[in-house]
Prior knowledge:
Oligomer: single chain
Amino acid sequence: MKRRNKGFTLIELIVVVAILVLLMLMLVPQLTGFTETAADTVCHANQLNAYKIMVLEYTLGKESFDQEAAEKAIIEKLGPLEKLCPSGGEVKPNVPDSDTSKFTISCKIHGGAEQEILGNYSKDMLEMAIHDFYDKGKIGQLDSTGPNFGMKFKKTIADKYGLNVDNFDFAVVKKSNGYSVYIFDAIVNRKPGEVVSGKVYEYDNQEVLIGSSEGQSFTGEISSKPVDKVQINYLNVGSVKLQK
């Protein structure tokens, strides 16, 4: 009796290939998500560095500050603008002629660096929230998407720091032992249940920062609720998970 030669039959090979295809279908979206997240992080970090360069050029530069001066300063320090985004997005500063102090920077793919820029002013945001919201008897979570106070507060911050009001959102939460300031990308046009990422800055009751001045990264779910008959999106702080 002849022994069967060692090897795979056609059916066995088809089964193996099918399994490999299924594994690839499951892994590729996850790997793509990790790649996109990394590219987003690098792009926003480069935007923040570019913004700092613009601040220095505006305050200490010997020449008049305009669009050309901003681009020149960034290119000298960081290299070509088209290289600042790993995904190939166009990163470009914007210096309005009407008021050169209102300069911004953004990427066509990843948006602006408002989240990172606002992190430098989380203490100012908290002081404004306490003075204009909590000290006037208001309680609960202050959402930048709120139709009564939040949206006006958000516009005030955007105007003060020269930011695009459509590129960021925030939430301030008063707790028994202090305050939490959450800063994240805009959620107005997002769907409830989607996950948003950002940074949170913790302060004690004396408004002294707790932990790193760079804040702590987090992810959290977007929820929806009615406020004065208007349905708004907001950050569900109960769903927030801190990143190590």
